[in-house]
């Protein structure tokens, strides 16, 4: 697969941007209990829960991965609206403050069991060696496609090709 439209690079594609965003979100959360921005709005998360329930229902006890989990909202929606098992959920993000925020919100909401990890999804780590039944992202693919470096973009297209090849092989 070829990415034919390559968007202009933006700070939204840099780690330093997300480090700053989530450091601020952690401060806001501590000061005012504000859980912060849910990308594309609350309805988007609910739509994704509905999609997941139809295609990978919670009764099958799927292992779920949220790539670039931000404030953890998507996993909270899967747990609270979708009845997915939190002990089978992992949220990863390369911004440490995002993971700190997700953990704090989970504790405050009384949601236990989710594994939270600081991971760059392009790095080969023990986390990337795990396999999952359902891997979701909301806004992360968009952010990555705005990365200023050619290398990250190359990684992105290589991953899309791998996913495509696997899908074709099924
Ligand atoms: C637009 S935000 C979306 C956050 C969250 N998924 C939501 O829906 O609110 C993009 C997220 O992707 C994360 N991210 C971007 N590139 C990443 C990478 N290479 N590895 C891990 N996380 C990444 C950012 O830190 C940020 O949390």
UniProtKB/TrEMBL annotation:
Classification via Pfam families: Methyltransf_31
Molecular function as annotated in GO: protein-lysine N-methyltransferase activity
Gene3D superfamilies: Vaccinia Virus protein VP39
InterPro entries in the record: Methyltranfer_dom, SAM-dependent_MTases_sf
Annotated Methyltransferase domain residues: 60-145
One Gene Ontology cellular component annotation held by this UniProt entry: cytoplasm
Domain of life of the source: Eukaryota
PANTHER family: EEF1A LYSINE METHYLTRANSFERASE 2, PROTEIN-LYSINE N-METHYLTRANSFERASE METTL10
Protein name per its UniProtKB record: Methyltransferase domain-containing protein
Natural source organism: Mixia osmundae (strain CBS 9802 / IAM 14324 / JCM 22182 / KY 12970)
């Amino acid at each position: 697969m070829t990415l034919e439209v390559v968007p202009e690079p933006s700070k939204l594609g840099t780690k330093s941007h997300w480090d700053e965003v989530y450091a601020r979100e952690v401060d806001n959360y501590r000061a005012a209990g504000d859980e912060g921005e849910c990308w594309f709005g609350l309805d988007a998360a609910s739509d994704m829960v509905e999609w997941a329930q139809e295609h990978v229902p919670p009764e099958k006890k799927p292992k779920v991965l949220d790539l670039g989990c931000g404030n953890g909202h998507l996993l909270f929606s899967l747990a609270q609206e979708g009845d997915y098992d939190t002990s089978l959920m992992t949220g990863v993000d390369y911004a440490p403050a995002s993971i700190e925020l997700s953990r704090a919100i989970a504790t405050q909401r009384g949601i236990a069991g989710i594994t939270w990890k600081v991971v760059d999804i392009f790095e080969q780590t023990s986390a990337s060696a795990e396999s999952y039944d359902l891997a979701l992202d909301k806004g992360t693919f968009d952010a990555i496609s705005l990365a200023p470096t050619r290398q990250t973009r190359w990684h992105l297209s290589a991953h899309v090709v791998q996913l495509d090849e696997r899908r074709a092989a099924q």
